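Project channel, design review

CF: Before we commit to the Streptomyces xiangluensis constructs, I'd like one complete example in the thread so the newer folks can see what an input/output pair looks like. Taking LON peptidase substrate-binding domain-containing protein.
RD: sounds good, go ahead.
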Amino acid sequence: MTTVRLPLFPLNTVLFPGLVLPLNVFEERYRAMMRELLKTPEDEPRRFAVVAIRDGHEVAPSAPGLPDLTAVPERGPTAGFGDDPAQAFHKVGCIADAATIRERADGSFEVLATGTRRVRLLSVDASGAFLTAELEELEEDPGEEAGALAEGVLRAFRQYQKRLAGARERSLSTGGELPDEPSVVSYLVAAAAMLDVPAKQRLLQAPDTASRLREELKLLRAETAIIRNLPSLPASELTRSPTSLN
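CF: and here is what came back for LON peptidase substrate-binding domain-containing protein:
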């Protein structure tokens, strides 16, 4: 078992390998994380782990809020996550490699990172200025019939996009724009489909690529059927610009 210790960035979203993650970092605990990452030599990866926050848990407010305008917001690395922050997070996440970390004049950061590899959360350390975690790196097992399943998922995904775009708009994804490597297909579709966090999390933690593709095929067919019966459903940004794994 290969383990690694990295800074931990909990989010209300799921990051997949190969997908780009833009971040606007303004909370002090995450500012401290970015300042630490900037100490990493430029020729080495600036890595941190992203985990999705479980339903019912949210990050601490950044300012006093309603109904008590005088309330002091919770602070510190565990703010908003309770006495045992590990219980507030899903157990499978993704390592992010920060290609760009730019500090603004107000001390906040603009970050552009890319998901690289899945990890399993083993433990959380809250003793520093920001959370760190011990993580187990997960291999990507192709499973059985991943190639054939990927072809079926791509066909279903194109139909899904066409339904989202509507009868008067063309689908913006063509065969030349979509990958054919099964694991890449599985992560692209998982990120691009309009699914809630629990559904995306189930796809991220699928035991192998084939299992993820089978689940996506079911989800895409179900979502396409729903859209077909609700023609007034608004299209998303997915229909206005191609999805990129850059």
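RD: helpful, thanks. Confidence is low (pLDDT under 50) at residues 59-66, 167-175, 235-246.
CF: The longest helix spans residues 209-229.
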